[in-house]
Design goal:
mainly alpha; 74% helix; Rna Polymerase Sigma Factor, Chain: A; Arc Repressor Mutant, subunit A; 2 domains; 192 residues; elongated
């Protein structure tokens, strides 16, 4: 199930009203929009970068960028699609900055959280190993391919929603997804 279905969104008509008010500088209207979308922004950031602390920074920066750019929001797409595009761009900016600035520090080495698994420790161990291999394979994907995989396979977005969010054609979104899945399958097979 998609996180978009789990959140309690503002009604579409009310959201448009809040956007217009926020574009005029109404901070209370923008705060209502933030409450409606902040969990989704954080979840997407977390899925893209994997680190909850970096995801929180990305979510905060995304919302600041959204506030600043809101006067230029034309409403051609849904507000959530527009926020997702800002989140993705912000996430990649943070990742690039982190890669440039950081040598591997002790606090960067993090333990994988345990996952609930079957009672059989061997099966649970295999699942944990597969999860780690999948995370590594996802990290190796080019950013555009990783974005498409996360949007399609994690969030359940349609090809049209992906294309709109990334500013590409539906065909390009399908091609990126196909190539990403093929590369993931190859990487997972090689690491087995």
């Amino acid at each position: 199930m998609s996180n978009r279905e789990d959140r309690d969104p503002v009604e579409e008509g009310r959201e448009k009203e809040l956007v217009v008010r926020a574009q005029s500088g109404d901070r209370a209207a923008f705060a209502a929009l933030v409450r409606a979308h902040q969990d989704e922004v954080f979840t997407l950031a977390r899925r893209l970068v994997g680190d909850p602390h970096m995801a929180a920074d990305i979510a905060q920066e995304t919302l600041v960028r959204a506030w600043r750019a809101l006067p230029s929001f034309r409403g051609d797409s849904k507000l959530s699609t527009w926020l997702h595009r800002i989140t993705v761009n912000t996430a990649w900016t943070h990742r690039d900055r982190a890669r440039r600035n950081a040598a591997l520090a002790l606090e960067d080495v993090r333990e994988q959280p345990s996952i609930p698994g079957p009672d059989d420790p061997e099966v649970a161990g295999e699942l944990l190993e597969l999860r780690g291999r999948l995370r590594t394979a996802l990290d190796r994907l080019p950013e555009g391919q990783r974005q498409v995989v996360v949007m399609k396979d994690v969030y359940g977005w349609s090809h049209q929603e992906i294309a709109d969010s990334m500013g590409i054609s539906v065909t390009a979104a399908k091609v990126r997804l196909h190539r990403a899945r093929a590369r993931l399958a190859r990487d997972l097979e090689e690491s087995a």
